[in-house]
């Protein structure tokens, strides 16, 4: 075992504890404990990487560089946020003045202050749009053929601008105080309607409360992320256990299916035998009912008379047959000479019968 592997093993533990610590050290990786168990070399690789990278996958050097760049970004962001906030506050002050001017009478100096500030903002915005230094394209065509110097001529009178600049901090402070009061009453509705002195005193604590709530929200987000990772692992474990249970259940079903099938087939056979007997009895009953409907007492008596007559005729035929057989036997005793005489006699009988038929036909047609 190498030195790094020994350090890794001693610092992270062994067995299942090692798998759990590796998973905890790389929460952003989509890994399961099963993956580390099936791939020991991968587990060793991740365990070794824990000596060089943090939970986010960065080395100390990259982490320091990232922190420096984040600080620079924060500085730039604060500068932009400061200017953007000031610009929006000025826009809100102008909008409030417009609303107030349509709903009530506003003093002339207040009108002059708001109109001068609005005009200065518009000119500054147009100058920034026309300034080629703010874009990457130096030879960009000007809008409507204007240049910043021409737009600057639309600035209000210098004395109005100076008067607006002198009164701007005071008006901006009033506007900010009103917004802070609104924010305070939003977080603490019981302070609504209190005096300005009490609300000013309580405003000193609003930043700390907002910061504490922001930290609490970040902590809750971190807890939610950890819970989501834990839920995902528990879900994978649950699904794997469910698959094992299903496989075990399938094995039990396959093992005991034959025994259950034999008993089921026996019961099915008994059922069909009973059904066969029932159907057979029903057929016999139907046959008896058909006989009873077909053979009435009158029909049975007529059949009996017919049977007696047929029996008597059969008896007479049998007697005649026996007499003919006895005569035939007596004729057979006479030999072949009598056979020739019998054939000649039969031929003569046929001729006689034929002539009788012809004579009868001739007599009928001659009338």
Ordered list of secondary-structure elements with their pairings:
Layout: H1 3-12, H2 15-25, H3 33-38, H4 40-49, H5 60-103, H6 108-130, H7 148-152, H8 158-187, H9 196-203, H10 206-294, H11 297-332, H12 336-366
Helix pairs in contact: 5-6, 6-8, 8-9
How would you describe this protein?
The protein is mainly alpha-helical and 367 residues long. It folds into 4 domains: 60-131 and 146-204, no CATH class; 214-294; 296-333; 337-367. Helices cover 83% and strands 0% of the residues. The protein has helices at residues 3-12, 15-25, 33-38, 40-49, 60-103, 108-130, 148-152, 158-187, 196-203, 206-294, 297-332, 336-366. Helix 5 (60-103) packs across helix 6 (108-130), helix 6 crosses helix 8 and helix 8 (158-187) packs across helix 9 (196-203). The longest helix is centred in the last third of the chain and has 89 residues, at 206-294. The radius of gyration is 61 Å and the shape is elongated. The termini are far apart.
Keywords summarizing the entry:
elongated, mainly alpha, disordered N terminus, 367 residues
Q: Brief overview, please?
A:
This protein has 367 residues and is mostly helical. It contains twelve helices and no strands.
Supply the number of structural domains: 4
Largest sheet: none
The count of helical stretches stands at 12
SSE sequence, one letter per element: HHHHHHHHHHHH
Mean pLDDT: 78
Helix content range: over 70%
Strand content: under 5%
Any low-confidence stretches, pLDDT <50, length ≥5? 1-15
Number of strands: 0
Shape category:
elongated
* Rg estimate, integer Å: 61 Å
The helix/strand class is mainly alpha
N-to-C CA distance: 145 Å
